[in-house]
Design brief:
Number of domains: 2
Helix content: 40-55%
Number of helices: 10
Radius of gyration: 22 Å
């Protein structure tokens, strides 16, 4: 049966409903619970490939999501969505060609005078917890058990983190440190220092933290308190995405910083955190896809 063609009014109403849903998800950042839901969702391996807006939508609808994909994508992972499961609605970009009126008589595959228009459409996706393995098939592993900060399981991440620091113009020095500081980022000397007495996984955590500073989150622009909260959040997210156990860390909270224009301010902080986390994850080859691929993931 062919899908019902919507009227212009119905399309406008649907677009407004999508905008309202996204606005509601963004406003959730203003509460402690809403902010922490987003950070935990963002730190889950498999969700970094979604745009910030869709991360917020996922966090609002299913706070405990760990791996989200479309129905067909899960079939490719030898999993099937259980009957009756409620879908998570995200917004996927859809592009189509618009042809001028004078091109009506030309073949559909004639690209002359065509322009591309992108619209966003609500599509259904599901969390892995809403699926079961296909009978007789071994499901594709989606993640590995999180490893403790006290171990050395992630020693292989030291080299790419140091390479990213070098790309930013920083050298990395590991040495025994006394006192409360386990590392720092010296923007004047372009040097990152890490306490060599820490376990290797803990050194990874410190490197991520200091590289976040090197990527532009300094005290001069943000003030000490805000800068530390931003890089702590980036560290929480990146460590979670690479499978380091961060259960002992609290989720930093920035709500209330907005003063005038609170929503715009808190959204800007989330965008900054997401952008910097993606930059570090990219250096660590964490699985990601551009936001345009979300339409395919939702298929």
């Amino acid at each position: 049966m062919a899908a019902k063609k919507l009227t212009d009014t119905e399309r406008a109403e649907r677009r407004q409903a999508d905008r309202d849903r996204l606005e509601q998800a963004a406003r959730a950042l203003l509460s402690t619970d809403g902010w922490q839901r987003w950070v935990r969702v963002r730190s889950t391996n498999g969700l970094s490939r979604y745009s910030l807006g869709n991360q917020l939508l996922i966090a609002m609808q299913r706070p405990n999501a760990t791996y989200v994909a479309g129905f067909r994508a899960f079939l490719g992972l030898n999993r099937c969505v259980r009957k009756g499961e409620k879908a998570i609605r995200i917004l996927a970009p859809m592009s189509f060609a618009e042809r001028g009126e004078d091109q009506a008589d030309r073949p559909a595959d004639d690209d002359a005078d065509q322009s591309t228009r992108t619209v966003f459409r609500a599509v259904p996706v599901f969390d892995v917890s809403q699926t079961d393995p296909l009978p007789g098939k071994e499901p594709v592993p989606l993640d590995s058990p999180a490893q403790p900060i006290s171990g050395d399981s992630h020693a292989h991440l030291i080299a790419p983190l140091e390479a990213l620091a070098a790309e930013l113009g920083y050298t990395v020095a590991r040495m025994p440190l006394d006192g409360s500081a386990d590392g720092w980022c010296d923007a004047t000397k372009h040097q990152i220092v890490v306490n060599s007495q820490l376990a290797t996984n803990a050194q990874v955590r410190i490197l991520v933290h200091e590289i976040a500073h090197a990527l532009g989150v300094g005290y001069r622009d943000y003030g000490r308190q805000r800068a530390e909260v931003l890089v702590d959040t980036v560290t929480y997210i990146v460590c979670g995405s690479v499978g380091l156990d961060i259960s002992g860390s609290s989720v930093p909270y920035v709500a209330g910083w907005g003063e005038d224009g609170a929503l715009e301010a808190i959204r800007a902080y989330a965008e900054t955190i997401d952008t910097i986390a993606r930059r570090i994850e990219d250096g660590l080859a964490v699985e990601q896809s551009p936001s345009a691929a979300e339409a395919a993931l939702a298929a």
